[in-house]
C-alpha cells in the first residue's frame, strides 16, 4: 500500500468546532483510559500534570487549533482512495467529506487546490496569511487615508503614522497577561490586503473568528520565540563573561560538597533558568474581540437574514442575571471498566455516548457524566432595551437577549448605554422540557463578542460616586463612556483659564431657553456635582455630593425643556413623569425571571440612575405613597427593599432634578411654596436649590422674549446667528466629564472661614431686634448645600481647592433661591420654616394670637352667663369684631380644634347648632 501525503491539518477535527450544516453527533471527543497501568502510579486514576485550560469562547469553538504548527499531524490516503489517519487501519468506511470537511477532494487526490471551509468561500490559508500580514504590517496611516486624510497630512505626523499599532498591542498583551485583542473592523477595511477578510468577517463570523484566534496564537508564539532567542543570547553572553572571570578556588575533594555550583554553568542548567515563554504563549486562550462595524442595526430591523451574521446593536441595559455556569466539555466515565472520555458541547447539545468506546468493553448505556470533572465557563444573560430617544412614535420599546461569556461577564450593569457587537443566533424551543420535540418557532439572542460604552453626547460617570473598594474598577468602566483625547484635554484646560468661563458654560446650557440665568447656573453646578466624602471620626458615614434641584412655577416657563436638555447630556439618566410613575417603578420591583422562573429584583428609575441624574417631571402630580420613597433616596442615597423574601439595600446615588406646577396651574404669591405645590415640607427641605420660575407680566421682558422666540424660527444664516459665543454640546459634555472624573477639590482654611461666617450671618437674620419673634432663616442643610455648591463651582474652574470666590457664588445662589421660595408673603421676610415645616413664624404667631382671642371670648361668656355655652356664630362674630385684621372662618375653626385638643374648650353639637363651652380644671 502506498501513502500519498496531503497538506497538514490540525489534529483530527475541522478548523471550526461547529459546522452550520453538520449534526451535533459529530462533536469531537478526546478519549483517555483510567484503567490502572504500570505508569499510572498504583490504583490512582491518572491525572494530567498540566492543569486543564479551556480555550472555548461562548458558542464560538476556537480550540480546533489546539497545537502549534509544528505539532500538526499529516493525513495520508490509501490505495483505495480513502484518506486515513496516522496509525489507523486504512480500511475505513468514512468518506472524505465527514472526515476533513476543510480540505477539497482535489487536495486529497494529490492535486493542487485551495482549502476552503465547507459551505463557504473562505480559504483557510489565505485568510490566516492575510490576517497575519495585517497584524505585522498595519500602521495608522492606512486608517488616516481611509478617513480622508491626504498624504501631506499623514507625512506631517512623522513616526506616529508609521507605528505598527497591533504589533505593539500584542506585545503589551503578553506582558500584562491580557487574553483579548480588541480588533477595530474599520482598520480591516482600511488595509487593502484584508478588505476581503472584512467582508467575510461580517458574513461568516462563526468560521473567520476561530481562524483569527489561531493566527493571533501563532503570532504570539513567534514573538515569544524571538524573545526567547534574545534572552538566550544575553544569557550566553553573561555565562561567557562569568567563565572568563572564573574563581581561582581549587576544586573541593569531599564528595558531600560536589553539588556546590561552579562558575561555569552547563547548557542544561542555563536552559532551565530561562522561562519557557513559548509554552506559556501556546497554552493561553488568545481571543479576538471585533468591534467598530460601519453601522449599528436597529433592534426592530433584526430578521432571519441576520442569523449567524456579525451585527452591532445599541441599547439600554435593563437587567443582568447572576453568573451562570455553562458546561463546555462533558466528562463521561464508564461504570463497568472506568474508561473516561471528554465530549465537546456544540451550542448546548451534549453528544452523549450510547456505549463505551473501549474495544474490550463496548457496554451499552454505561457512560455516566461526572460533573466535577466537566469544564464550565462563566455565562450571563443580559436584557438590552431600546433607548427612549430611539423608540418610534406610538411604539413600545423592543428588547433583545444577550449572552456574554468569561471576561465579558459583569462588564456592564443595569442602566448602562452600550453598543454590543456579536453574532445573531437562533435556538429551537422545546414543546416540553422533558421531550426532544421542538417547536417551529425559534428563540433569538446575540452571542456577544465585544461591549463598548460610548456616547459622545453623554457625560462620564463621577468615579467618586462609586464605593471606595470598587473605585478602580469603576474608573476603568467609566473610561468607555466618554474618552477624552489629549487634544481635547488641552482645549479644556485652555477654556478653563478664561475669565468668563462661568458665564460661558451657563450660556451654553440650553441656549434656546431665554434668560433664567440663575436657574441655568444652579443646574450647571448640579451637573458638575460636589465631592462624595466619608469621615472616619463619625464612623465612616457617607456624605452625599450630589445636588438636588426643584423648579416650581407657572406653566409655559421652559421647566420641562430644561429637564429634557439635562437628560440628553447626563450620564445614566432616566426621565420619568410623576403621574406615570409608581413607588416600585422608581425604586425596585419583584418579578419572575423568564429563564430560571425564580423571583428576581428589577431596578427602577432611581436605581438605574445610580451615578447620574434622574429627571422627574410633574413632581406635584405624584401620589403620597410614591413621594414617600424619595425621602431615603434624596438624603441617604439608598433604597431599602424587603418584599417577597428579598431583603437588600440598593444604591441610588443620583442627583434629582424635578419640576412642579402650582395648584390651580397658577402660582399664588400670597401662599407659601408648600401650599402652592402641595409638597410635604420634609421632602421640600431635601432640595439644595428651590427655584420659583414665575410668569410675570412685564412689557419690556415680554418684547425681548417674543423677539428671541421669533428669531429661532428665522433662517439660520450668519447674519442672523447669535453673536454670543456658545460651546458645542459635545465639548460641553467632555468638559463636564473631565471635571467630574479628574477634579476633586478640597476646602481651604479661608473657604471654611467664609462658609462659617455666611452660615452664621444667614442664621442671624432671624433675630430681629425690632420684634420678639425668632425666624429660622437657615439650617444645617443650607450649610451642607453651600459646601456642595462651592465644591461644584471649584470643579467648574478645574481647581483642586475651594476658594472664597467659590463660597461667595454658592452663598449667592442659596440666597437667591431662598429669597424666592422661603419669603413670607405676609411680612416679606425670609423664613426657612416655610420649607422645613410649611408654616412661617408670622403664621405661628398669628395662630397663637387667634387662640388667645377665642379663649378670651369664651371666658367672658362664661363669666356673664354662668357656665352656659356660647353659640359658634356669636363666637365668630365677636372674634372678628375684636380683631384688627380680617379673620377667616377656617382659621377660627382651626383654633377651636387646637384648643379642644389641649383640653381647654368643648365643642357641642354639629353644623349651625354648634356651641362652645369652657372647661375648667377640677
UniProtKB/TrEMBL annotation:
EC number: 3.6.4.12
SMART domains per the UniProt record, alphabetical: MCM
Intracellular or extracellular location(s): Nucleus
Keywords: ATP-binding, DNA replication, DNA-binding, Helicase, Hydrolase, Nucleotide-binding, Nucleus, Phosphoprotein
InterPro entries listed in its UniProt record: MCM, MCM_4, MCM_CS, MCM_dom, MCM_lid, MCM_N, MCM_OB, NA-bd_OB-fold
Complexes and interactors: Component of the MCM2-7 complex.
Composition-biased stretches (Polar residues): 20-41, 94-103
Protein name: DNA replication licensing factor MCM4
Highest taxon above the source species: Eukaryota
Biased composition (Basic and acidic residues): 46-62
One Gene Ontology cellular component annotation held by this UniProt entry: MCM complex
Source organism (scientific name): Exophiala dermatitidis (Black yeast-like fungus)
Spans annotated as Disordered: 1-110, 231-268
Domain MCM C-terminal AAA(+) ATPase: 501-709
Physiological role: Acts as component of the MCM2-7 complex (MCM complex) which is the replicative helicase essential for 'once per cell cycle' DNA replication initiation and elongation in eukaryotic cells. The active ATPase sites in the MCM2-7 ring are formed through the interaction surfaces of two neighboring subunits such that a critical structure of a conserved arginine finger motif is provided in trans relative to the ATP-binding site of the Walker A box of the adjacent subunit. The six ATPase active sites, however, are likely to contribute differentially to the complex helicase activity.
Enzyme category, top tier: hydrolase
Family, per entry: Belongs to the MCM family.
Location, primary (coarse class): nucleus
One of the protein's GO biological processes: DNA strand elongation involved in DNA replication
Amino acid at each position: 500500500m502506498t501513502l500519498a501525503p496531503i497538506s497538514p491539518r490540525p489534529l483530527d477535527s475541522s478548523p471550526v468546532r461547529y459546522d452550520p450544516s453538520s449534526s451535533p453527533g459529530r462533536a469531537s471527543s478526546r478519549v483517555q483510559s483510567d484503567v490502572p497501568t504500570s505508569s499510572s502510579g498504583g490504583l490512582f486514576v491518572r491525572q494530567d500534570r498540566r492543569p486543564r485550560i479551556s480555550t472555548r469562547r461562548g458558542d464560538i469553538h476556537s480550540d480546533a487549533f489546539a497545537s502549534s504548527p509544528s505539532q500538526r499531524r499529516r493525513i495520508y490516503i490509501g490505495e483505495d482512495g480513502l484518506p486515513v489517519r496516522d496509525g489507523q487501519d486504512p480500511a475505513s468506511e468514512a468518506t472524505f467529506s465527514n472526515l476533513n470537511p476543510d480540505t477539497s477532494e482535489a487536495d486529497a487526490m494529490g492535486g493542487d487546490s485551495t482549502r476552503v471551509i465547507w459551505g463557504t468561500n473562505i480559504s483557510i490559508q489565505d485568510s490566516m496569511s492575510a490576517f497575519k500580514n495585517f497584524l505585522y504590517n498595519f500602521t495608522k496611516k492606512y486608517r488616516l487615508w481611509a478617513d480622508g486624510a491626504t498624504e501631506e497630512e499623514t507625512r506631517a505626523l512623522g513616526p506616529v503614522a508609521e507605528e505598527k499599532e497591533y504589533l505593539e498591542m500584542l506585545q503589551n498583551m503578553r506582558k500584562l497577561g491580557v487574553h483579548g485583542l480588541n480588533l477595530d473592523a474599520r482598520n480591516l477595511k482600511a488595509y487593502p490586503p484584508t478588505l476581503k477578510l472584512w467582508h467575510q468577517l461580517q458574513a461568516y463570523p462563526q468560521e473567520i473568528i476561530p481562524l483569527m484566534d489561531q493566527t493571533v496564537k501563532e503570532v504570539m508564539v513567534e514573538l515569544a520565540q524571538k524573545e526567547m532567542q534574545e534572552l538566550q543570547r544575553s544569557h550566553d553572553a553573561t555565562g561567557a563573561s562569568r567563565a572568563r572571570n572564573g574563581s581561582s578556588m581549587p576544586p573541593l575533594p569531599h564528595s558531600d560538597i560536589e553539588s556546590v555550583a561552579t562558575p561555569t554553568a552547563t547548557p542544561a542548567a542555563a536552559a532551565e533558568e530561562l522561562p519557557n515563554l513559548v509554552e506559556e504563549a501556546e497554552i493561553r486562550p488568545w481571543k479576538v474581540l471585533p468591534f467598530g462595524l460601519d453601522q449599528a442595526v436597529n433592534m426592530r430591523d433584526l430578521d432571519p437574514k441576520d442569523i449567524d451574521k456579525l451585527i452591532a446593536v445599541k441599547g439600554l441595559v435593563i437587567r443582568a442575571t447572576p453568573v451562570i455556569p455553562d458546561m463546555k466539555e462533558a466528562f463521561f466515565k464508564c461504570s463497568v471498566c472506568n474508561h473516561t472520555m471528554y465530549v465537546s458541547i456544540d451550542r448546548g447539545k451534549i453528544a452523549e455516548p450510547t456505549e463505551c468506546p473501549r474495544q474490550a468493553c463496548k457496554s451499552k448505556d454505561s457512560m455516566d457524566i461526572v460533573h466535577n470533572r466537566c469544564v464550565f465557563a462563566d455565562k450571563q444573560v443580559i436584557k438590552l432595551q431600546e433607548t427612549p430617544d430611539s423608540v418610534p412614535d406610538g411604539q413600545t420599546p423592543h428588547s433583545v437577549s444577550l449572552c456574554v461569556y468569561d471576561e465579558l461577564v459583569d462588564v456592564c450593569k443595569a442602566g448602562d448605554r452600550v453598543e454590543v457587537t456579536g453574532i445573531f443566533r437562533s435556538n429551537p424551543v422545546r414543546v416540553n422540557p422533558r421531550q426532544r420535540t421542538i417547536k417551529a418557532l425559534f428563540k433569538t439572542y446575540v452571542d456577544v463578542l465585544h461591549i463598548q460604552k460610548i456616547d459622545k453626547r453623554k457625560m462620564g460617570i463621577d468615579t467618586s460616586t462609586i464605593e471606595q473598594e470598587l473605585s478602580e474598577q469603576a474608573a476603568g468602566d467609566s473610561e468607555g463612556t466618554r474618552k477624552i483625547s489629549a487634544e481635547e484635554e488641552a482645549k479644556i484646560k485652555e477654556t478653563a483659564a478664561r475669565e468668563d468661563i462661568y458665564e460661558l458654560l451657563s450660556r451654553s446650557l440650553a441656549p434656546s431657553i431665554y434668560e433664567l440665568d440663575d436657574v441655568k447656573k444652579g443646574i450647571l453646578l448640579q451637573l458638575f456635582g460636589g465631592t462624595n466624602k466619608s469621615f472616619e471620626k463619625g464612623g465612616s458615614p457617607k456624605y452625599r455630593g450630589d445636588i438636588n434641584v426643584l423648579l416650581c412655577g407657572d406653566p409655559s416657563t421652559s421647566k420641562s425643556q430644561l429637564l429634557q436638555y439635562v437628560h440628553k447630556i447626563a450620564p445614566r439618566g432616566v426621565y420619568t413623569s410623576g403621574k406615570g410613575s409608581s413607588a416600585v417603578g422608581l425604586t425596585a420591583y419583584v418579578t419572575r425571571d423568564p429563564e430560571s422562573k425564580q423571583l428576581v429584583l428589577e431596578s427602577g428609575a432611581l436605581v438605574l440612575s445610580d451615578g447620574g441624574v434622574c429627571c422627574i417631571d410633574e413632581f406635584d402630580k405624584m401620589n403620597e405613597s410614591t413621594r414617600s420613597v424619595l425621602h431615603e433616596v434624596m438624603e441617604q442615597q439608598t433604597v431599602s427593599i424587603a418584599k417577597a423574601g428579598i431583603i437588600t439595600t440598593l444604591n441610588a446615588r443620583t442627583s434629582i432634578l424635578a419640576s412642579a406646577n402650582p395648584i390651580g396651574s397658577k402660582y399664588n404669591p400670597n401662599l407659601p411654596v408648600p401650599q402652592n405645590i402641595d409638597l410635604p415640607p420634609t421632602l421640600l427641605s431635601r432640595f439644595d436649590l428651590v427655584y420659583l420660575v414665575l410668569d410675570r407680566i412685564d412689557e419690556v421682558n415680554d418684547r425681548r422674549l417674543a423677539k428671541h422666540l421669533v428669531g429661532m424660527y428665522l433662517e439660520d444664516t450668519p447674519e442672523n446667528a447669535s453673536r454670543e459665543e456658545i460651546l458645542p454640546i459635545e465639548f460641553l459634555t467632555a468638559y463636564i466629564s473631565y471635571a467630574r472624573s479628574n477634579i476633586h477639590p478640597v476646602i481651604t482654611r479661608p473657604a471654611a472661614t467664609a462658609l462659617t461666617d455666611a452660615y452664621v450671618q444667614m442664621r442671624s437674620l432671624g433675630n430681629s431686634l425690632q420684634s420678639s419673634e425668632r425666624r429660622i432663616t437657615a439650617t444645617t442643610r443650607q450649610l451642607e448645600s453651600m459646601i456642595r455648591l462651592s465644591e461644584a463651582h471649584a470643579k467648574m474652574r478645574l481647581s483642586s481647592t475651594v476658594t472664597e470666590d467659590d463660597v461667595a457664588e454658592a452663598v449667592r445662589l442659596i440666597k437667591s433661591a431662598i429669597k424666592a421660595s422661603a419669603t413670607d408673603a405676609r411680612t416679606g421676610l425670609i423664613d426657612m420654616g416655610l420649607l422645613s415645616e410649611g408654616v412661617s413664624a408670622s403664621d405661628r404667631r398669628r395662630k397663637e394670637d387667634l387662640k388667645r382671642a377665642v379663649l378670651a371670648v369664651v371666658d367672658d361668656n362664661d363669666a356673664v352667663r354662668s357656665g352656659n355655652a356660647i353659640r359658634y356664630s356669636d363666637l365668630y362674630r365677636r372674634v372678628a369684631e375684636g380683631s384688627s385684621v380680617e379673620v377667616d372662618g377656617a382659621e377660627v375653626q382651626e383654633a377651636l380644634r387646637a384648643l379642644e385638643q389641649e383640653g381647654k374648650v368643648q365643642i357641642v353639637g354639629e353644623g349651625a347648632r354648634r356651641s362652645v363651652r369652657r372647661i375648667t380644671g377640677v
